[in-house]
Every structure is written in C-alpha cells, then in structure tokens.
Amino acid sequence: MFSYRTLFTTVLALASATSQATTLAGWTFESTAPVTAGPVSAEIGSGSASGLHASASAVYSSPTGNGSAKSYSANYWAIGDYYQFSTSTTGWLNVSLSWDQTSSATGPRDFKLAYSTNGSSFTDFATYQVPANSAPNAWSILSTTTAAHFAYDLSSITALNDQATVFFRLIDTSTTSANGTGTVGTAGTDRVDNFSINAVPLPAGAWLLASGLLGIGRLQRRKLFLR
Hints:
CATH topology of the largest domain: Jelly Rolls
CATH class of the largest domain: Mainly Beta
CATH architecture of the largest domain: Sandwich
C-alpha cells in the first residue's frame, strides 16, 4: 500500500544524503589553551567544552596536541570522569563526531562515547580504547598519528537532529592504564585534540516538498473517511 509518510521520510533522507557535512563546533585548543575544567568555547562554530573529575586534585593543562602545539589534558582520572562537548543542531541533521585522544602510560585506556539532548540523561553509543602516547604513536607539533584518531557516525540517532543543544561525553570506564600493564595512576594524563561536531543541513526546498507530500496524503485520507 502506498504511504505518503514513507515518501516524506525518503525525501528527507535523500536531501540530507546529498548535502555536505559542516562543522557546527570544533576545538583545536590552540587559541583557548585550557588550564581549567572549562567551559572552553569552540574555536570553530559555536559550542562549549568542559571536564569533570571526582577528585578535586585534578589539574587541567594544554600540552602538545596531535600535530599541533596545544590540546586539552587532565590527570587524576577515575571511572566516570569525562570530557564533555556541546553545541546546537537546530536546522541540522545526521550528526557525526571526530577527535584525537591519547593517554600517558599510566593514564586511562578505556572510554565510552555517550550522548544527550538535555545534559543530564545520557545514552551510551560506543566503547573504545585510547593508545598510549609513545612511539610510534607519540603526539608532536610536527606530526600526526592516525592511531589516536576516532570518528563516529551518529546519523542513526534521529533524536540528535534539530535540537537546541546536544551533549557528548568521553567517559573513563575502567582503571586499566593505557600501557595495558597496570592501573591508572594519579599523575596519569589523558588529552583530547581536534574535536569536531559535524552535521548536514536540510535544504529548505526539501522540507517544502516533503511537507507538501505529507499534506496531500492527509487530505486523501480525509476524503476517504468522508465517503
């Protein structure tokens, strides 16, 4: 049976698929050079980054990044500690993320990515492991290591589309150190660089076409009901 609602969804999907992703918010930490838990404003677009640690002794700093001079770093990691990044997706669809992340030998290895639309209730999306910041994957100003690069496509999470604010957390999930041979030490650090929140704009014409098709479907259903 023909469905105008299915056609409505298909038109929106096709429109977004033919659009190019744009960076809604990006952090290189070159100009911000954070030394606190934040908030740290995005250097590309609009957004906010911050960190949260259970220990009041945690120190935030901006050491060498992945192919750059600065990054966002912290020590005193415990399970549940995190970095958080947020932005608005109003008028945007098909969110994706990318970033670089590494730890010192005694920094945390195991993390998960979680998302939220209200900043309090988070849903887990993926788990991953951070490499130790050592040869051949050591960060430096002049070279970039792909081993420390992470990218996730969240376009299947439609709840993130067209929201006033969306939130993403990189959360420590274990006490295993990045070198894999011990536990996380209080002096162990983890650093993030080049964090980017990307999305696809939906052309206004597609909204008009899709809405028109849905309106036609509703009108035809009403006529059938009145017969």
